[in-house]
Design a protein that fits this description.
Layout lengths: L4 E2 L5 H17 L5 H10 L5 H16 L2 H6 L5 H23 L8 H29 L4 H25 L5 H19 L14 H30 L4 H15 L4 H8 L10 E2 L5 E2 L22 H11 L5 H10 L16 H4 L3 H22 L1 H7 L6 H28 L5 H20 L4 H28 L4 H8 L2 H26 L1 H5 L13 H32 L14
Antiparallel strand pairs: 1-2, 2-3
Length: 581
């Protein structure tokens, strides 16, 4: 049986942990760097386009297949998971750096493919550790916390691009060495601050102010990164000014630390009790005051636990109890047969996976992120086909509004779920209806619509992440959130394979063959396709799929409306009785 873990008490530790989690979430965005060094894999190692594309698939698979960290997050403390993520990052990117720089000689293709899977899988370990820990530390602000962490994750690509262009002088080998050493160092330095803390039972006005400050800081950072990227692309900035831009960026990244610093100098007396965790998200314990929290001792004989209750406690804590022991306990009356959890309570993964709500949420999320990542993966080719030959501005626009969607989706859903008990999934319905219009705009090929469509897609794509995460915790609980979240995340690589690799790739090659002629296509190393027909059928199919997703999200919203009326009646979060949080 796992040993109980005493939670960190006080009001400052959760905010220190959230500030550290933001830095780790930026580090976890290392998988977004593949476009920055993929050209070196092709030119230095002599790979063809198909081999480079398969390495991109390896990066996507490594980033999103996080079932192992999802399973073990209830058994390992956050610092151990962060160490595993840091180690995977160092080993994976170290091997790739050795291949690109020729430091290890000529490495076989299969080894680089596996190394890239390991390297980007560090994202799953880092993200799972900080996301699960902070969702449990702030259980009544789930949408806001998910929006903040995923929002910063969306900005990580722009942060790495700034470092790549200014500090590393557009060197792919230096970038890979930075990923192999810099990301693990940052993770190890701050991992001691990410730990389970005493969760607050209600959201105070002070907490709301702190969240607003972090959200404002992230918006300023996003606007700053977008502005400086455009400036560097249009103007030729000197090296001194470029270094100043990076320094300001780092200061904006550290801005959330202002909250625990302020709490250090202006202390408030904590009024919340200490809880004790058994390491898997279950809390028990009680009173305290002024920072010295002690376990409650029951002195009233009417409140003293009976022997059967004691047996029940040991029974529920030991999930590895044999079937024979359970039957004996049932026969002696020491325990009652455990009922299946209801929506809003803690589900085990095997209990959640047989529920219709689970698969409805998975399919709706799969449609949103799967279709969105298809456009993202092909954005450069889409731009060229529609007459935009420099895809940098399209990628910058998409990245910024992806961040806005992640941050805004969490904040907006949190407001309406408290004020109107409106299920968060209604925003999945809204965004996927907008995505239908977006894909029709892309398919039209009208001049200038690509920029408007890119803005709309970035907003809708980012919203999928910040809605799915808190919805999963509200339907199936926080206890086994790690494995449930990582299973849901499989929708991203699955969508990329089905919609991008099979659908978009096939349509593009077919249209290119029509334009260039079959003979020229077979003898051309880099066939290209021009005009809206290159992706028109793909966009029409994606629009139809989002139509199906919209209908299913309406069904899911209607089904789970009573859950939100139960959880948020009265305008604040109420923990279900059957939940251990």
């Amino acid at each position: 049986m796992k040993q109980p873990q005493t939670l960190k008490s006080g009001t400052r530790p959760p905010w220190i942990g959230l500030s550290a989690a933001i830095l780790i979430q930026i580090a976890a965005g290392n998988a977004y760097n593949f476009p920055l060094y993929s050209h070196s894999l092709k030119s230095v190692l002599g790979f063809n386009q198909r081999q480079v594309t398969m390495l991109g698939v390896a990066a996507d698979v490594g980033e999103n297949v996080g079932l192992v960290p999802g399973i073990v997050c209830n058994r390992l403390p956050p610092w151990v998971m962060l160490c595993v993520g840091a180690g995977a990052c160092a080993v994976g990117y170290g091997v790739i750096w050795g291949g690109v720089s020729r430091s290890f000689g000529e490495l076989p293709y299969w080894l680089l493919w596996i190394a890239l899977c390991i390297a980007t899988n560090s994202s799953a370990w880092l993200s799972t550790a900080v996301l699960v820990t902070n969702m449990r530390n702030f259980p009544v602000s789930r949408g806001t916390v998910a929006g903040i962490l995923k929002g910063y994750g969306g900005l990580s690509a722009a942060v790495y691009t700034e470092i790549y262009s200014v500090l590393l002088h557009n060197s792919s080998s230096k970038l890979l060495l930075f990923l192999a050493l810099g990301v693990p160092i940052v993770s190890v330095l701050v991992m001691g601050f990410v730990h389970a803390c005493t969760p607050s039972s209600q959201e105070s006005s002070t907490q709301v102010g702190h969240f607003v400050f972090i959200q404002a800081a992230s918006v300023v950072l996003g606007i700053y990164l977008l502005s400086t990227t455009v400036l560097e692309d249009v103007l030729s900035l000197g090296s001194t000014l470029s270094y100043v831009i990076v320094v300001v960026m780092v200061l904006l990244l550290l801005a959330p630390l202002a909250i625990p610093l302020k709490m250090t100098f202006y202390r408030l007396k904590p009024i919340q009790p200490e809880l004790v965790s058994d390491g898997d998200g279950s809390f028990h314990g009680s009173v305290g005051g002024e920072g010295n929290f002690d376990k409650t001792e029951v002195t009233d004989p009417l409140l003293a636990p009976s022997s059967s209750t004691a047996h029940l406690g040991s029974f529920t804590e030991n999930e590895d109890m044999s079937d024979v022991d359970i039957l004996l306990a049932l026969g002696e009356g020491a325990v009652k047969k455990k009922k299946r959890p209801r929506r809003g309570e803690d589900f085990k993964f095997k209990e959640a996976i047989v529920k219709a709500d689970f698969w409805l949420l998975f399919f709706v999320y799969f449609v949103g992120v799967g279709s969105g990542v298809t456009v993202l993966n092909n954005l450069a080719q889409i731009g060229i086909a529609l007459g935009v030959h420099d895809a940098t501005i399209l990628l910058s626009i998409f990245s910024f509004f992806n961040f806005v969607g992640r941050l805004g989706g969490g904040t907006l859903s949190e407001y309406f779920v408290r004020s109107m008990t409106l299920p968060r999934t209604i925003w999945l319905t809204c965004t996927q209806v907008i995505m239908i219009i977006t894909y029709l705009l892309f398919a039209s090929g009208l001049k200038g619509t690509i920029y408007v469509a890119t803005v709309m897609l970035g907003l809708c794509y980012g919203t999928q992440f910040s809605i799915m995460i808190p919805t999963a915790t509200e339907l199936f609980g926080l206890k086994h959130f790690g494995i449930i979240f990582n299973f849901m995340s499989l929708g991203n690589p699955l969508g990329a394979f089905l919609f991008s690799y099979l659908l978009a790739g096939y349509i593009y090659d077919r249209e290119a063959a029509k334009q260039r002629g079959l003979h020229h296509l077979l003898n051309s190393e880099h066939p290209s396709c021009l005009g809206p027909d290159c992706f028109r059928i793909t966009f029409l199919v994606l629009a139809c799929i989002c139509g199906i997703g919209s209908i299913l999200s309406i069904v899911l919203t209607v089904r789970i409306k009573p859950v939100y009326q139960m959880l948020y009646a009265g305008g604040s979060f109420r923990q279900p009785q059957g939940s251990s949080h």
